[in-house]
Amino acid sequence: MKAVAIIPARFAATRLPGKVLLDLAGKPMIQHVYERTRAAHGIADVIVATDDERIAQAVHAFGGKVAMTSPAHQTGTDRLAEVAQGLDCDLVVNVQGDEPLIAAQSVQIALAPMLERPDLPMSTLREALTDRDAIADPNNVKVVVDHEGFALYFSRHPIPFRRNADQHITWWRHIGLYVYRRDFLLTYARLAPTPLQVAESLEQLRALEHGYRIFCAETPHPAIGVDTPEDLERVRALLAQ
Fold first, then answer.
1. N or C: more exposed end of the chain, with fewer CB within 10 A?
2. Is this structure's pTM higher than 0.90?
3. CA nearest neighbour of 189 among 91, 76, 90
4. How far is CA 184 from CA 84, 86, 94, 112, 190, in A?
5. 3-state secondary structure of 50
6. Whether 184 contacts 119, CB under 8 Å
7. How far apart are CA 19 and CA 11, in angstroms?
8. Strand partners, 24
């Protein structure tokens, strides 16, 4: 099956405008994401989807591919679907442009169940959370799953609530990397926004509320999304090592 990775990238980030172009160890952030995604086995092509010429120029400068999209898109999924409409592929991998430390192995882990199970419409990733501050941080999206690994709910709040402090619970952080069947992605982008999606500001809840299942594969490779200046400095320190 042919899988194409798309990296939606916009300039107007709320807390760090232009963050995908910020320098990290001598490269713009988007280049780190592109190169790590390109290194994943099973990815036939990588495309940056953007409506900003500054991002397009930066990607062209390091030899990457760009698809210019409408500036009217409200979500990354809408931007993704516009590009996917013109692709000849079976699977579309959505890699966030602000995940410069995403491991190529994590892309492969998310891709594997979609290759093995034709009944899955989409998959994503989760990693175990142990740090109490990280569990409480609303920037770290949490997910609870059933015994087969399918998402029951995503939230910015710590879930589940542990009533008995002696009970062993694993908290899972959601890593926002998705793999879609191309046909499902085009359907998903046309679905109406849902109350829980709006309340949590988590787009993946739209799929759950419309009755679609999301498989959450576990990855041992931590990923650090860059949402704040503190995140940026943490990533810079890690890359410097």
1. C
2. yes
3. 76
4. 11, 14, 13, 17, 10
5. strand
6. no
7. 7
8. 27
